[in-house]
Task: structure prediction
Amino acid sequence: LGLGCVCVDKWIEHGGYGKQLVKAANAFIRSQQCEGSLLCKDSLVGFYQKCGWNDCTYQTAEVAGGSYHNHIMMLDQTDSSVRVSINRNF
Result:
């Protein structure tokens, strides 16, 4: 399952609401016994790591048919991969 577009209003930013949303999503992903993945930019890696996600090491990645060069994060998984292919654009 993919996680994306986690955001909170600027007025309540840094209040822990984003972390609560991600933790609820994590619980759902685990309850479905699925792998969790998300795509993110450098500035968000630390946030997602604090929420239990791991930065995936890969040689090449393709998202919706195009090259991808940012971070791919996985929930509860630390394996690295030579090639990652995601067939949907988020």
Observations:
- The chain has one domain: 10-86.
- Residues 10-86 form one domain.
- The longest strand covers residues 58-63.
- Helices lie at 17-31, 45-50.
